[in-house]
Amino acid sequence: MKKTTILFLLLAMALSHAQKFENLAQTPPLGWNSWNTFGTDINEELVKGIADKFVELGLKDAGYQYIVLDDGWMSKERDANGNLVADPIKFPNGMKALADYIHSKGLKFGLYNCAGATTCAGYPGSRGHEYQDARTYASWDVDYLKYDWCNTDKINAESAYTTMRDALYKAGRPVVFSICEWGDNEPWKWAKDIGHLWRVTGDIINCWDCEVGHGSWSSSGIWKIINMRKDIRKAAGPGHWNDFDMMEVGNGMTGAEDRTHFAMWSMLASPLIMGNDLRTASKETIKTLSNKEVIAVNQDKLGIQGFRFTNENNMEIWLKPLDNNQWAMTFINMSDNPVDFVFDWKKHNIGDDVNGRYVDMKKNVFKIRDVFNHKNLGDTSTNLKAKIEPHDVLMVTLKE
């Protein structure tokens, strides 16, 4: 057998065993990303300050783990050997030292790059350097990689993300792989065995239901994003999540809108990645972000993505099956006026066709728990009555 044939077979065998790291992101990742608030204006002291706040504000205790530096952390040029280099002014002690600091807090460290020749902000991308960059990340003890889709010309998305997946696996350090190609190539159809989460929309912006243009692309508000994709919930589950983008909680919407935003990302089983400045966050913002009962809905081990149950008279109701035959429900006032709301449980049998879960509410009685306010609301033997403020939410769990 010729040497070239043997080498080809060995390469094929090696590639056939490449895979994403299993047993990671069994529930949606919780963390923080620098982009929504800071763009490329990031530095070492900022990131250390955020890590400190994770602990000080109880966010680590609530389950948040990952601190992810988005675009702009690296120098504009690779070094003489083609390696990525941290910007020496922004990060004078380098990425390994920063990773060590974050790890010393019991947290995990993430970085950003891009499948294109350059990143969205014009820094060196990974195209043609995937294995080299993966080795660099491993040497820095990186735990999470967000991988963007700018400047990719006409390359195939599934192939490009598979290449980086294989590179990360060969480098040997377990990494949560976050695919960020904005849903353009329908990753929910092919990315389950490649990444641990994949963006399903373009960039988010801090508004209730708007779209803001930026030339050839636009950013979308909370409800624009929620309503953008149809029939993708069956793709979500432990180790593979639909990512509705980083959160805008604390970035200028009302407290009610922040609560609804947080509730919906939890119902959708989306990663809960904070995007605000934790160093200056209000008590109300931290109260929302650190609500363990709401987070528990997001982190439910079944990993089922919630869905719209009804939508009538400016009141949306969403439903999410939970472990142990429990359910989560959100009641959202979409109007600009307060609503006195009454829900007759006996007129609404609960069910999830995708996952084969059904409840006859005439025969079953559930205890009702208000998870934002941490109080019990009786049970489903009587009508649920509540006053819901504009753009606010009543989020409950149901337990037999």
Residue runs with pLDDT of under 50 for 5 or more positions: 4-16
Q: How is the CATH topology of the largest domain named? A: TIM Barrel
The CATH superfamily of the largest domain is Aldolase class I
Number of domains: 2
Global shape: globular
Query: Helix count, per DSSP?
Result: 11
Describe the structure.
The protein is globular, with a radius of gyration of 22 Å. A hairpin with a 3-residue loop joins β12 and β13. The N and C termini lie far apart (67 Å). α6 packs across α7, α9 packs parallel to α10 and α9 packs parallel to α11. About 3% of the residues have low confidence. The chain is built from eleven helices and 20 strands. An eight-stranded parallel sheet has the order 9-6-5-4-3-2-1-10. It has a six-stranded antiparallel sheet with strand order 11-12-13-20-17-18, covered by helices on one side. It has two domains: 275 residues, Aldolase class I (TIM Barrel, Alpha-Beta Barrel), CATH 3.20.20; 93 residues, Golgi alpha-mannosidase II (Immunoglobulin-like). The protein has 400 residues and is α/β, with parallel strands linked by helices.
